[in-house]
Design brief:
Length: about 250
Amino acid sequence: LLILAFVISGLIARYYLVEEPFQLNQALNFDYTKSRPVAFVPITACPTLEHIENIGFHSGGGVRGIPPNYKLRTTVALTLPESDYNRHLGMFQVRVDFLSENGKSLGSLSRPCMLEFRSEPIRLLQTFFKIIPLVAGYVSESQTLSLKLSGYTETFTPTACLKVTIEQRAEFRAGAGIPEVYNAFLHVESDLPFFKRILWHWRRTVFVWLGMILFMVELLFALLCYGAIMFPRARSPGTTRSSESQRSHQAQA
């Protein structure tokens, strides 16, 4: 009964009570043949891609990856080499567009960024202390920029794809002012409503308490239905003697 109660508790908590927030982690492969490097991240499908790679994704009308009215927190992590070009480049812009299945933009978030400034003496001192790991190849002269973009709320039109674009400052001509990038990653996470967020953070407690309640209900039901079989009543000595006397009187008659 206890095992059955916890199995049912897990199924109820997983499919009916506790809702898992939407999470997406994806490496970004920017197309540097464009004047503004672009990377697409499919949620359900990316119809704007020339070669669609939707392995593990489903396309079609009505398919939704993110529930409506959920706020999204987007983080773009860029690892940039501390090259002379990047250090002298200064500011550039990163934009994330939320696209529908037909390629229409549902919303956009952007943020300017640049390499963290380090003076020449500081860089020389850091290089001196890290000379052995640098020569051995365990570390590299790079910085990772973590750009947090928030403020987009999922609409009733499903978001099918994310488009990440690196843009230059206005003073640069097309194709110039783009930073050198080692690698890039995108992380998207939804914020659950208040009550669902409480259930998600306390999901293990909900699972245990629900399992114990179901176990008590099963035990009570078993006692009510099969109590006489499981716990037969013992006859008292007086009842036994009276039944034996009745049998003897019936035999004499």
